[in-house]
What does this fold into?
Amino acid sequence: MRLTDLLHPHLDAVTTVVDATGGGLRLEPYLHLPPGVALRDDDQRPVQEGELALLSYGPDADLHGSEDACRAVLARMRPGARGLIVFGHRGSELPYHRLLDDLVAHRCQVLRAAPLDYVQLHVGAVIARTDELLPPHDFFGRPVPSDGYATALRIADEYVFADLASRSLRARTLDLERTVEETERLRGAAGQDGIAERLAAAVREKEQLAAALRGARDRVDVLQARVAMLEGSTSLRVGKALVTAARAPKRGAVRLPGELYGLWRGRRRSTGRAPDGAAKAQPEPDAPADDRFHLAHRALTAAPRDRLVVAGVLTAATAEDFAADVVVNRLLPHDGRLLVQRTDPDVLVVQLSACAGDGPWWLTGTGLAPDLDRTLAELLAEARVLGRKAVLWRDAPPSAAPGLARLAWDAVVDADTGVRLARLDPAAEGRERLREVFREDGTRVRLSQLSRLTGAPDPLDERRVAVLAAPRDRTDVARLVGQVLGQLHRPVEVVVPDPAGLDELTAAGLTVRRGQPLAPWVADWTDLAEERPDTLLLDLMCAQEYSGADAVGHTPTADDYVFVPALRPLLVRRSLHMSGTDPGSWAARGHRLFAVRGKEPS
It folds into this structure.
Protein backbone atom coordinates (compact mmCIF):
# COMPACT_ATOMS: atom_id res chain seq x y z
CA MET A 1 0.00 0.00 0.00
CA ARG A 2 1.15 3.55 -0.71
CA LEU A 3 1.24 6.21 1.97
CA THR A 4 -1.35 8.26 0.09
CA ASP A 5 -3.77 5.31 0.10
CA LEU A 6 -3.51 5.14 3.88
CA LEU A 7 -3.52 8.88 4.55
CA HIS A 8 -6.04 10.48 2.17
CA PRO A 9 -9.21 8.76 3.50
CA HIS A 10 -8.47 10.44 6.86
CA LEU A 11 -7.90 13.98 5.61
CA ASP A 12 -11.55 15.00 5.94
CA ALA A 13 -11.74 18.20 8.05
CA VAL A 14 -7.90 18.35 8.07
CA THR A 15 -6.37 21.63 6.93
CA THR A 16 -2.76 21.26 8.09
CA VAL A 17 -0.31 18.38 8.13
CA VAL A 18 2.49 18.81 10.66
CA ASP A 19 5.77 17.04 9.85
CA ALA A 20 7.02 15.88 13.26
CA THR A 21 9.06 12.90 12.06
CA GLY A 22 12.31 14.31 13.44
CA GLY A 23 14.52 11.81 11.62
CA GLY A 24 16.27 11.74 8.28
CA LEU A 25 13.13 10.85 6.33
CA ARG A 26 11.54 13.40 4.05
CA LEU A 27 7.91 12.38 3.66
CA GLU A 28 6.64 15.30 1.60
CA PRO A 29 7.10 13.53 -1.78
CA TYR A 30 5.07 10.56 -0.46
CA LEU A 31 2.00 12.56 0.55
CA HIS A 32 0.64 14.24 -2.63
CA LEU A 33 -1.63 16.38 -0.47
CA PRO A 34 -4.86 17.61 -2.09
CA PRO A 35 -5.56 21.34 -2.55
CA GLY A 36 -6.55 23.03 0.69
CA VAL A 37 -4.24 20.94 2.90
CA ALA A 38 -0.98 22.64 3.84
CA LEU A 39 2.23 21.05 5.09
CA ARG A 40 4.38 22.72 7.77
CA ASP A 41 7.30 21.67 9.92
CA ASP A 42 6.81 20.94 13.59
CA ASP A 43 7.33 23.96 15.83
CA GLN A 44 6.70 22.15 19.13
CA ARG A 45 3.21 23.65 19.47
CA PRO A 46 0.24 21.47 20.46
CA VAL A 47 -1.42 19.62 17.59
CA GLN A 48 -4.95 21.01 17.48
CA GLU A 49 -8.22 19.88 15.94
CA GLY A 50 -8.04 20.04 12.16
CA GLU A 51 -4.35 19.15 12.16
CA LEU A 52 -2.63 15.82 11.45
CA ALA A 53 0.80 15.05 12.80
CA LEU A 54 3.31 12.89 10.93
CA LEU A 55 5.35 10.69 13.27
CA SER A 56 7.98 8.05 12.56
CA TYR A 57 9.63 5.38 14.66
CA GLY A 58 12.01 2.62 13.66
CA PRO A 59 15.19 0.68 14.42
CA ASP A 60 17.43 3.43 13.01
CA ALA A 61 16.89 6.52 15.19
CA ASP A 62 18.84 8.79 12.82
CA LEU A 63 16.64 7.81 9.92
CA HIS A 64 13.26 6.97 11.42
CA GLY A 65 13.32 9.03 14.61
CA SER A 66 13.47 7.95 18.23
CA GLU A 67 10.83 6.42 20.45
CA ASP A 68 11.03 9.33 22.91
CA ALA A 69 10.40 11.87 20.15
CA CYS A 70 7.33 9.93 19.09
CA ARG A 71 6.02 9.89 22.69
CA ALA A 72 6.58 13.64 23.00
CA VAL A 73 4.39 14.33 19.96
CA LEU A 74 1.64 12.08 21.34
CA ALA A 75 1.65 14.16 24.54
CA ARG A 76 1.05 17.36 22.52
CA MET A 77 -2.01 16.09 20.69
CA ARG A 78 -5.33 17.74 21.61
CA PRO A 79 -8.89 16.38 21.17
CA GLY A 80 -9.84 16.24 17.49
CA ALA A 81 -6.24 16.01 16.28
CA ARG A 82 -5.06 13.11 14.18
CA GLY A 83 -1.77 11.47 13.50
CA LEU A 84 -0.02 9.11 11.12
CA ILE A 85 2.77 6.95 12.52
CA VAL A 86 5.12 5.26 10.02
CA PHE A 87 7.28 2.42 11.29
CA GLY A 88 10.63 1.23 10.02
CA HIS A 89 9.94 -2.21 11.49
CA ARG A 90 8.38 -5.00 9.49
CA GLY A 91 4.88 -6.06 10.41
CA SER A 92 5.99 -9.30 12.05
CA GLU A 93 8.55 -7.39 14.16
CA LEU A 94 6.45 -4.32 15.04
CA PRO A 95 7.10 -3.30 18.69
CA TYR A 96 3.66 -1.77 19.13
CA HIS A 97 3.69 -2.71 22.81
CA ARG A 98 6.28 0.00 23.45
CA LEU A 99 3.82 2.72 22.35
CA LEU A 100 0.59 1.10 23.48
CA ASP A 101 0.63 2.50 27.01
CA ASP A 102 1.40 6.03 25.75
CA LEU A 103 -1.39 5.84 23.19
CA VAL A 104 -3.86 4.88 25.91
CA ALA A 105 -2.52 7.44 28.39
CA HIS A 106 -2.92 10.28 25.87
CA ARG A 107 -6.34 9.06 24.70
CA CYS A 108 -5.17 8.18 21.19
CA GLN A 109 -7.13 5.53 19.30
CA VAL A 110 -5.67 3.59 16.39
CA LEU A 111 -8.19 3.79 13.57
CA ARG A 112 -6.34 1.82 10.94
CA ALA A 113 -2.99 0.06 10.39
CA ALA A 114 -1.67 -1.30 7.11
CA PRO A 115 1.59 -2.49 5.51
CA LEU A 116 3.50 -0.04 3.33
CA ASP A 117 5.32 -1.01 0.17
CA TYR A 118 8.56 0.90 0.71
CA VAL A 119 12.15 -0.10 1.31
CA GLN A 120 12.59 1.82 4.58
CA LEU A 121 8.98 2.11 5.74
CA HIS A 122 7.00 -1.06 6.28
CA VAL A 123 3.92 -0.21 8.39
CA GLY A 124 1.69 2.82 8.85
CA ALA A 125 -1.00 3.54 11.47
CA VAL A 126 -3.60 6.33 11.60
CA ILE A 127 -4.47 7.54 15.10
CA ALA A 128 -6.94 10.07 16.52
CA ARG A 129 -6.94 11.98 19.82
CA THR A 130 -10.43 11.45 21.19
CA ASP A 131 -12.37 11.51 24.44
CA GLU A 132 -14.86 8.93 23.21
CA LEU A 133 -14.51 5.66 21.39
CA LEU A 134 -14.56 6.14 17.62
CA PRO A 135 -15.75 3.51 15.13
CA PRO A 136 -12.88 1.59 13.52
CA HIS A 137 -12.19 1.66 9.81
CA ASP A 138 -12.31 -1.19 7.33
CA PHE A 139 -9.63 -2.15 4.80
CA PHE A 140 -10.68 0.64 2.42
CA GLY A 141 -10.52 3.34 5.11
CA ARG A 142 -14.27 3.67 5.60
CA PRO A 143 -15.57 3.94 9.17
CA VAL A 144 -17.71 1.06 10.38
CA PRO A 145 -20.95 2.65 11.71
CA SER A 146 -21.71 1.71 15.31
CA ASP A 147 -22.23 3.31 18.68
CA GLY A 148 -19.63 3.34 21.43
CA TYR A 149 -20.66 0.13 23.15
CA ALA A 150 -20.92 -1.84 19.89
CA THR A 151 -17.55 -0.45 18.83
CA ALA A 152 -15.97 -1.58 22.09
CA LEU A 153 -17.47 -5.04 21.67
CA ARG A 154 -16.25 -5.23 18.08
CA ILE A 155 -12.72 -4.21 19.02
CA ALA A 156 -12.63 -6.60 21.99
CA ASP A 157 -13.98 -9.52 19.96
CA GLU A 158 -11.63 -8.86 17.06
CA TYR A 159 -8.68 -8.61 19.45
CA VAL A 160 -9.44 -12.03 20.96
CA PHE A 161 -9.77 -13.72 17.57
CA ALA A 162 -6.71 -11.91 16.17
CA ASP A 163 -4.68 -12.90 19.20
CA LEU A 164 -5.77 -16.51 18.77
CA ALA A 165 -4.73 -16.49 15.13
CA SER A 166 -1.43 -14.76 15.87
CA ARG A 167 -0.57 -17.19 18.69
CA SER A 168 -1.28 -20.12 16.38
CA LEU A 169 0.93 -18.62 13.70
CA ARG A 170 3.71 -17.89 16.19
CA ALA A 171 3.56 -21.46 17.49
CA ARG A 172 3.64 -22.79 13.95
CA THR A 173 6.60 -20.56 13.15
CA LEU A 174 8.51 -21.77 16.20
CA ASP A 175 7.81 -25.40 15.30
CA LEU A 176 9.05 -24.83 11.75
CA GLU A 177 12.18 -23.09 12.99
CA ARG A 178 12.96 -25.98 15.33
CA THR A 179 12.29 -28.46 12.52
CA VAL A 180 14.62 -26.57 10.20
CA GLU A 181 17.37 -26.44 12.83
CA GLU A 182 17.04 -30.17 13.55
CA THR A 183 16.99 -31.00 9.85
CA GLU A 184 20.09 -28.92 9.22
CA ARG A 185 21.87 -30.56 12.13
CA LEU A 186 21.00 -34.06 10.92
CA ARG A 187 21.84 -33.13 7.36
CA GLY A 188 25.22 -31.82 8.46
CA ALA A 189 25.99 -34.99 10.40
CA ALA A 190 24.76 -37.19 7.57
CA GLY A 191 26.75 -35.11 5.12
CA GLN A 192 29.96 -35.67 7.07
CA ASP A 193 29.33 -39.41 7.24
CA GLY A 194 28.36 -39.48 3.60
CA ILE A 195 31.51 -37.64 2.59
CA ALA A 196 33.70 -40.19 4.39
CA GLU A 197 31.83 -43.09 2.80
CA ARG A 198 31.97 -41.55 -0.65
CA LEU A 199 35.67 -40.82 -0.21
CA ALA A 200 36.39 -44.43 0.78
CA ALA A 201 34.31 -45.69 -2.14
CA ALA A 202 36.15 -43.33 -4.49
CA VAL A 203 39.53 -44.58 -3.23
CA ARG A 204 38.48 -48.21 -3.73
CA GLU A 205 37.18 -47.46 -7.19
CA LYS A 206 40.40 -45.63 -8.04
CA GLU A 207 42.49 -48.61 -6.95
CA GLN A 208 40.34 -50.98 -9.00
CA LEU A 209 40.61 -48.78 -12.07
CA ALA A 210 44.37 -48.45 -11.62
CA ALA A 211 44.74 -52.25 -11.39
CA ALA A 212 42.59 -52.71 -14.49
CA LEU A 213 44.65 -50.11 -16.34
CA ARG A 214 47.92 -51.84 -15.44
CA GLY A 215 46.53 -55.18 -16.65
CA ALA A 216 45.39 -53.61 -19.90
CA ARG A 217 48.80 -52.07 -20.50
CA ASP A 218 50.51 -55.44 -19.89
CA ARG A 219 48.21 -57.10 -22.43
CA VAL A 220 48.92 -54.32 -24.93
CA ASP A 221 52.68 -54.84 -24.53
CA VAL A 222 52.31 -58.57 -25.16
CA LEU A 223 50.16 -57.99 -28.24
CA GLN A 224 52.59 -55.41 -29.62
CA ALA A 225 55.45 -57.90 -29.22
CA ARG A 226 53.49 -60.61 -31.02
CA VAL A 227 52.61 -58.25 -33.87
CA ALA A 228 56.26 -57.27 -34.21
CA MET A 229 57.29 -60.93 -34.39
CA LEU A 230 54.69 -61.67 -37.05
CA GLU A 231 55.62 -58.68 -39.18
CA GLY A 232 59.29 -59.63 -39.01
CA SER A 233 58.77 -63.32 -39.84
CA THR A 234 60.00 -64.73 -43.16
CA SER A 235 56.76 -66.64 -43.77
CA LEU A 236 54.73 -63.40 -43.74
CA ARG A 237 57.18 -61.62 -46.06
CA VAL A 238 57.24 -64.56 -48.51
CA GLY A 239 53.47 -64.59 -48.49
CA LYS A 240 53.32 -60.88 -49.27
CA ALA A 241 55.76 -61.35 -52.19
CA LEU A 242 53.72 -64.21 -53.65
CA VAL A 243 50.47 -62.24 -53.34
CA THR A 244 52.06 -59.23 -55.05
CA ALA A 245 53.32 -61.41 -57.91
CA ALA A 246 49.93 -63.05 -58.31
CA ARG A 247 48.20 -59.67 -58.63
CA ALA A 248 50.53 -58.53 -61.44
CA PRO A 249 51.90 -61.72 -63.10
CA LYS A 250 53.77 -59.99 -65.93
CA ARG A 251 55.93 -57.78 -63.75
CA GLY A 252 55.68 -59.69 -60.48
CA ALA A 253 56.81 -63.04 -61.90
CA VAL A 254 60.02 -61.43 -63.21
CA ARG A 255 60.78 -59.70 -59.86
CA LEU A 256 59.76 -62.63 -57.64
CA PRO A 257 63.05 -64.62 -57.79
CA GLY A 258 65.06 -61.55 -56.89
CA GLU A 259 62.80 -60.76 -53.95
CA LEU A 260 62.93 -64.32 -52.64
CA TYR A 261 66.73 -64.30 -52.98
CA GLY A 262 66.88 -61.03 -51.02
CA LEU A 263 64.72 -62.53 -48.29
CA TRP A 264 67.02 -65.57 -48.12
CA ARG A 265 70.14 -63.39 -47.89
CA GLY A 266 68.51 -61.17 -45.24
CA ARG A 267 67.42 -64.21 -43.23
CA ARG A 268 70.99 -65.57 -43.29
CA ARG A 269 72.35 -62.17 -42.10
CA SER A 270 69.81 -61.95 -39.32
CA THR A 271 70.50 -65.60 -38.40
CA GLY A 272 74.21 -64.85 -38.18
CA ARG A 273 73.49 -61.90 -35.83
CA ALA A 274 70.82 -63.71 -33.79
CA PRO A 275 71.25 -67.45 -33.72
CA ASP A 276 68.05 -67.90 -31.79
CA GLY A 277 66.13 -66.41 -34.75
CA ALA A 278 64.31 -63.90 -32.56
CA ALA A 279 64.68 -60.92 -34.86
CA LYS A 280 63.45 -57.83 -33.09
CA ALA A 281 61.96 -55.69 -35.79
CA GLN A 282 60.99 -52.17 -34.73
CA PRO A 283 57.60 -51.31 -36.19
CA GLU A 284 57.01 -47.81 -37.38
CA PRO A 285 55.07 -45.83 -34.83
CA ASP A 286 51.41 -45.56 -35.70
CA ALA A 287 49.65 -42.23 -35.80
CA PRO A 288 48.16 -41.41 -32.43
CA ALA A 289 44.60 -42.52 -32.20
CA ASP A 290 41.98 -39.77 -31.90
CA ASP A 291 40.28 -40.78 -28.67
CA ARG A 292 38.56 -37.45 -28.16
CA PHE A 293 34.85 -37.44 -27.49
CA HIS A 294 33.06 -35.32 -30.07
CA LEU A 295 29.98 -33.76 -28.44
CA ALA A 296 26.73 -33.30 -30.29
CA HIS A 297 25.84 -30.25 -28.18
CA ARG A 298 28.08 -27.42 -27.03
CA ALA A 299 27.27 -24.56 -24.68
CA LEU A 300 30.64 -22.89 -24.36
CA THR A 301 31.31 -19.15 -24.25
CA ALA A 302 34.32 -16.97 -23.57
CA ALA A 303 32.24 -13.97 -22.48
CA PRO A 304 30.72 -13.44 -19.00
CA ARG A 305 27.54 -15.45 -18.66
CA ASP A 306 24.24 -13.61 -18.79
CA ARG A 307 22.07 -16.74 -18.81
CA LEU A 308 21.67 -19.69 -16.50
CA VAL A 309 23.45 -22.83 -17.81
CA VAL A 310 21.73 -26.07 -16.85
CA ALA A 311 23.07 -29.59 -17.30
CA GLY A 312 20.28 -32.00 -16.68
CA VAL A 313 18.72 -35.39 -16.82
CA LEU A 314 15.55 -34.04 -18.39
CA THR A 315 12.66 -35.16 -20.53
CA ALA A 316 12.60 -33.91 -24.10
CA ALA A 317 9.64 -31.59 -23.43
CA THR A 318 11.24 -30.08 -20.33
CA ALA A 319 14.55 -29.53 -22.11
CA GLU A 320 12.70 -27.74 -24.93
CA ASP A 321 10.78 -25.50 -22.50
CA PHE A 322 13.89 -24.68 -20.46
CA ALA A 323 15.89 -23.88 -23.59
CA ALA A 324 13.62 -20.91 -24.30
CA ASP A 325 15.07 -19.07 -21.28
CA VAL A 326 18.36 -20.75 -20.29
CA VAL A 327 21.19 -22.74 -21.87
CA VAL A 328 20.35 -26.44 -21.57
CA ASN A 329 22.71 -29.39 -21.93
CA ARG A 330 20.66 -32.56 -21.87
CA LEU A 331 22.82 -35.33 -20.43
CA LEU A 332 22.84 -38.89 -21.72
CA PRO A 333 24.33 -41.88 -19.90
CA HIS A 334 27.27 -42.26 -22.29
CA ASP A 335 28.35 -38.59 -22.45
CA GLY A 336 26.89 -36.99 -19.33
CA ARG A 337 30.10 -36.84 -17.34
CA LEU A 338 32.06 -35.38 -20.23
CA LEU A 339 29.37 -32.74 -20.86
CA VAL A 340 29.49 -31.68 -17.23
CA GLN A 341 33.27 -31.34 -17.45
CA ARG A 342 33.33 -29.47 -20.76
CA THR A 343 30.34 -27.10 -20.29
CA ASP A 344 30.84 -26.22 -16.60
CA PRO A 345 27.11 -25.73 -15.88
CA ASP A 346 25.73 -23.52 -13.11
CA VAL A 347 23.61 -26.37 -11.79
CA LEU A 348 23.03 -30.08 -12.38
CA VAL A 349 19.31 -30.89 -12.47
CA VAL A 350 17.88 -34.40 -12.33
CA GLN A 351 14.18 -34.56 -13.18
CA LEU A 352 12.43 -37.45 -11.50
CA SER A 353 9.97 -37.97 -14.35
CA ALA A 354 12.94 -38.39 -16.74
CA CYS A 355 14.03 -41.36 -14.64
CA ALA A 356 10.54 -42.83 -14.26
CA GLY A 357 9.34 -42.42 -17.85
CA ASP A 358 10.53 -43.49 -21.27
CA GLY A 359 13.96 -42.30 -22.27
CA PRO A 360 17.68 -43.03 -21.94
CA TRP A 361 17.52 -42.77 -18.12
CA TRP A 362 14.50 -45.05 -17.71
CA LEU A 363 14.68 -47.23 -14.55
CA THR A 364 17.29 -45.00 -12.89
CA GLY A 365 16.72 -45.01 -9.16
CA THR A 366 14.52 -48.10 -9.23
CA GLY A 367 17.28 -50.60 -8.48
CA LEU A 368 16.64 -52.38 -11.80
CA ALA A 369 19.43 -50.59 -13.67
CA PRO A 370 22.50 -50.44 -11.40
CA ASP A 371 24.72 -49.21 -14.23
CA LEU A 372 22.51 -46.13 -14.65
CA ASP A 373 22.47 -45.56 -10.89
CA ARG A 374 26.25 -45.70 -10.86
CA THR A 375 26.48 -43.31 -13.82
CA LEU A 376 24.16 -40.84 -12.11
CA ALA A 377 26.21 -41.00 -8.91
CA GLU A 378 29.32 -40.24 -10.96
CA LEU A 379 27.57 -37.19 -12.46
CA LEU A 380 26.77 -35.88 -8.99
CA ALA A 381 30.36 -36.47 -7.89
CA GLU A 382 31.66 -34.63 -10.94
CA ALA A 383 29.36 -31.68 -10.22
CA ARG A 384 30.70 -31.44 -6.68
CA VAL A 385 34.27 -31.54 -7.94
CA LEU A 386 33.42 -28.49 -10.07
CA GLY A 387 31.78 -26.78 -7.09
CA ARG A 388 28.28 -26.89 -8.66
CA LYS A 389 25.03 -27.74 -6.95
CA ALA A 390 23.03 -30.89 -7.72
CA VAL A 391 19.25 -30.46 -7.59
CA LEU A 392 16.57 -33.14 -7.66
CA TRP A 393 13.46 -31.84 -9.41
CA ARG A 394 10.78 -34.05 -7.91
CA ASP A 395 7.89 -33.55 -10.34
CA ALA A 396 6.58 -37.11 -9.88
CA PRO A 397 5.83 -39.31 -6.86
CA PRO A 398 9.06 -40.24 -5.02
CA SER A 399 7.99 -43.88 -5.10
CA ALA A 400 8.52 -43.91 -8.87
CA ALA A 401 12.31 -43.81 -8.29
CA PRO A 402 13.00 -44.36 -4.58
CA GLY A 403 16.72 -44.82 -5.11
CA LEU A 404 17.14 -41.13 -5.97
CA ALA A 405 16.34 -40.17 -2.38
CA ARG A 406 19.47 -41.99 -1.20
CA LEU A 407 21.76 -39.74 -3.23
CA ALA A 408 23.22 -36.57 -1.73
CA TRP A 409 21.38 -33.57 -3.18
CA ASP A 410 22.11 -29.94 -2.47
CA ALA A 411 18.43 -29.08 -2.90
CA VAL A 412 15.13 -30.74 -3.76
CA VAL A 413 12.41 -28.90 -5.68
CA ASP A 414 8.95 -30.34 -5.13
CA ALA A 415 7.02 -28.77 -8.01
CA ASP A 416 6.23 -29.26 -11.64
CA THR A 417 8.48 -27.68 -14.24
CA GLY A 418 5.99 -24.92 -14.98
CA VAL A 419 4.04 -23.93 -18.04
CA ARG A 420 5.61 -22.23 -21.00
CA LEU A 421 3.36 -19.40 -22.13
CA ALA A 422 3.88 -20.26 -25.80
CA ARG A 423 2.13 -23.59 -25.22
CA LEU A 424 -1.11 -21.91 -24.09
CA ASP A 425 -4.02 -20.87 -26.28
CA PRO A 426 -4.93 -17.28 -25.31
CA ALA A 427 -8.40 -17.54 -26.80
CA ALA A 428 -9.23 -20.68 -24.84
CA GLU A 429 -7.33 -19.94 -21.62
CA GLY A 430 -8.33 -16.31 -21.20
CA ARG A 431 -6.40 -13.26 -20.06
CA GLU A 432 -6.60 -14.12 -16.35
CA ARG A 433 -5.07 -17.54 -16.90
CA LEU A 434 -2.17 -16.03 -18.83
CA ARG A 435 -1.52 -13.58 -15.99
CA GLU A 436 -1.62 -16.36 -13.44
CA VAL A 437 0.85 -18.52 -15.37
CA PHE A 438 3.11 -15.53 -16.00
CA ARG A 439 3.30 -14.60 -12.32
CA GLU A 440 3.08 -17.95 -10.53
CA ASP A 441 3.28 -21.05 -12.75
CA GLY A 442 5.50 -20.13 -15.68
CA THR A 443 8.63 -22.07 -16.62
CA ARG A 444 10.64 -18.89 -16.19
CA VAL A 445 9.39 -18.59 -12.60
CA ARG A 446 10.49 -22.16 -11.85
CA LEU A 447 13.92 -21.52 -13.37
CA SER A 448 14.27 -18.47 -11.17
CA GLN A 449 14.30 -20.83 -8.17
CA LEU A 450 17.38 -22.54 -9.62
CA SER A 451 19.12 -19.23 -10.15
CA ARG A 452 18.52 -18.26 -6.53
CA LEU A 453 20.00 -21.57 -5.40
CA THR A 454 23.14 -21.17 -7.49
CA GLY A 455 23.65 -17.42 -7.67
CA ALA A 456 23.51 -17.58 -11.47
CA PRO A 457 21.78 -14.96 -13.68
CA ASP A 458 18.06 -14.86 -12.94
CA PRO A 459 15.80 -15.56 -15.97
CA LEU A 460 13.26 -13.15 -14.47
CA ASP A 461 15.71 -10.33 -15.19
CA GLU A 462 14.48 -10.56 -18.77
CA ARG A 463 11.14 -9.19 -17.55
CA ARG A 464 12.57 -5.91 -16.28
CA VAL A 465 10.91 -2.81 -17.74
CA ALA A 466 12.08 0.80 -17.85
CA VAL A 467 9.51 3.60 -18.06
CA LEU A 468 10.35 6.77 -19.96
CA ALA A 469 8.50 9.88 -18.75
CA ALA A 470 8.82 13.66 -18.63
CA PRO A 471 6.62 15.11 -15.85
CA ARG A 472 6.22 18.88 -16.11
CA ASP A 473 4.56 19.82 -12.82
CA ARG A 474 3.40 18.41 -9.49
CA THR A 475 0.24 17.03 -11.07
CA ASP A 476 2.27 15.06 -13.61
CA VAL A 477 4.60 13.83 -10.86
CA ALA A 478 1.66 12.57 -8.77
CA ARG A 479 0.08 10.90 -11.80
CA LEU A 480 3.37 9.23 -12.79
CA VAL A 481 3.98 7.92 -9.27
CA GLY A 482 0.43 6.62 -9.06
CA GLN A 483 0.57 4.86 -12.42
CA VAL A 484 3.99 3.30 -11.80
CA LEU A 485 3.32 2.04 -8.28
CA GLY A 486 -0.13 0.85 -9.27
CA GLN A 487 1.17 -1.57 -11.91
CA LEU A 488 0.78 -5.26 -11.08
CA HIS A 489 4.03 -5.82 -12.97
CA ARG A 490 6.13 -2.97 -11.68
CA PRO A 491 8.91 -1.44 -13.74
CA VAL A 492 12.37 -1.48 -12.21
CA GLU A 493 13.49 1.96 -13.35
CA VAL A 494 12.00 5.29 -14.34
CA VAL A 495 14.02 7.51 -16.67
CA VAL A 496 13.14 11.20 -16.48
CA PRO A 497 14.84 14.50 -17.39
CA ASP A 498 14.63 15.64 -13.74
CA PRO A 499 14.19 13.17 -10.84
CA ALA A 500 13.04 15.88 -8.41
CA GLY A 501 9.86 15.00 -6.55
CA LEU A 502 10.07 11.27 -7.28
CA ASP A 503 11.44 10.23 -3.88
CA GLU A 504 8.46 7.93 -3.34
CA LEU A 505 9.50 5.82 -6.32
CA THR A 506 13.00 5.51 -4.88
CA ALA A 507 11.55 4.58 -1.49
CA ALA A 508 9.50 1.87 -3.19
CA GLY A 509 12.69 0.26 -4.51
CA LEU A 510 12.69 1.67 -8.05
CA THR A 511 15.64 3.35 -9.73
CA VAL A 512 14.97 6.93 -10.80
CA ARG A 513 17.61 8.59 -12.95
CA ARG A 514 18.49 10.49 -16.08
CA GLY A 515 20.09 9.08 -19.21
CA GLN A 516 19.34 5.96 -21.21
CA PRO A 517 17.29 2.99 -20.01
CA LEU A 518 19.21 -0.10 -18.90
CA ALA A 519 16.35 -2.60 -18.52
CA PRO A 520 15.76 -5.08 -21.38
CA TRP A 521 12.34 -3.55 -22.15
CA VAL A 522 11.25 0.07 -22.54
CA ALA A 523 7.77 1.58 -22.13
CA ASP A 524 7.28 5.16 -23.31
CA TRP A 525 4.97 7.01 -20.92
CA THR A 526 5.75 10.51 -22.09
CA ASP A 527 2.04 11.33 -22.35
CA LEU A 528 1.04 11.25 -18.69
CA ALA A 529 -2.51 12.37 -19.44
CA GLU A 530 -3.25 8.91 -20.86
CA GLU A 531 -5.10 6.49 -18.61
CA ARG A 532 -3.11 3.34 -17.95
CA PRO A 533 -4.76 0.40 -16.17
CA ASP A 534 -2.84 -1.44 -13.47
CA THR A 535 -2.65 -4.51 -15.75
CA LEU A 536 -1.02 -2.67 -18.68
CA LEU A 537 2.60 -3.78 -18.25
CA LEU A 538 1.51 -7.20 -17.02
CA ASP A 539 -0.52 -7.85 -20.18
CA LEU A 540 2.21 -6.47 -22.43
CA MET A 541 4.85 -8.69 -20.85
CA CYS A 542 2.52 -11.71 -21.04
CA ALA A 543 2.09 -11.08 -24.76
CA GLN A 544 5.83 -10.65 -25.28
CA GLU A 545 6.76 -13.82 -23.43
CA TYR A 546 4.06 -15.72 -25.33
CA SER A 547 5.21 -14.48 -28.74
CA GLY A 548 8.90 -13.68 -28.35
CA ALA A 549 8.24 -10.41 -30.24
CA ASP A 550 10.54 -7.38 -30.34
CA ALA A 551 7.73 -4.88 -29.83
CA VAL A 552 4.21 -5.18 -28.40
CA GLY A 553 1.42 -2.66 -28.70
CA HIS A 554 -2.06 -1.76 -29.93
CA THR A 555 -3.49 -1.47 -33.43
CA PRO A 556 -6.44 0.68 -34.61
CA THR A 557 -8.43 -2.48 -35.37
CA ALA A 558 -7.87 -3.86 -31.83
CA ASP A 559 -6.02 -6.96 -33.01
CA ASP A 560 -5.37 -9.38 -30.16
CA TYR A 561 -2.52 -11.89 -29.88
CA VAL A 562 -1.48 -11.83 -33.54
CA PHE A 563 1.65 -10.74 -35.37
CA VAL A 564 1.06 -7.55 -37.34
CA PRO A 565 3.07 -5.45 -39.85
CA ALA A 566 2.56 -2.20 -37.91
CA LEU A 567 1.35 -1.07 -34.49
CA ARG A 568 1.56 1.63 -31.86
CA PRO A 569 4.48 0.40 -29.74
CA LEU A 570 3.89 0.30 -25.99
CA LEU A 571 6.67 -2.12 -25.01
CA VAL A 572 9.89 -2.24 -27.06
CA ARG A 573 13.08 -4.21 -26.75
CA ARG A 574 15.85 -1.93 -25.50
CA SER A 575 18.17 -2.63 -28.43
CA LEU A 576 15.38 -1.74 -30.86
CA HIS A 577 14.53 1.41 -28.91
CA MET A 578 18.16 2.49 -28.86
CA SER A 579 18.54 1.93 -32.62
CA GLY A 580 16.52 5.08 -33.34
CA THR A 581 14.81 3.61 -36.40
CA ASP A 582 11.29 4.65 -37.36
CA PRO A 583 8.62 2.25 -35.96
CA GLY A 584 7.04 2.14 -39.40
CA SER A 585 10.12 0.38 -40.79
CA TRP A 586 10.50 -2.20 -38.03
CA ALA A 587 8.61 -4.97 -39.78
CA ALA A 588 10.53 -4.39 -43.04
CA ARG A 589 13.80 -4.75 -41.11
CA GLY A 590 12.77 -8.18 -39.80
CA HIS A 591 11.60 -7.20 -36.31
CA ARG A 592 8.58 -9.06 -34.96
CA LEU A 593 5.59 -6.94 -33.95
CA PHE A 594 2.84 -8.44 -31.81
CA ALA A 595 -0.52 -6.84 -31.14
CA VAL A 596 -2.54 -7.14 -27.95
CA ARG A 597 -5.96 -5.62 -27.36
CA GLY A 598 -5.93 -2.52 -25.19
CA LYS A 599 -9.09 -3.34 -23.27
CA GLU A 600 -10.61 -6.68 -22.48
CA PRO A 601 -13.90 -7.37 -24.25
CA SER A 602 -16.94 -6.75 -22.11
Q: What stands out?
A: The two ends are 29 Å apart (CA to CA).
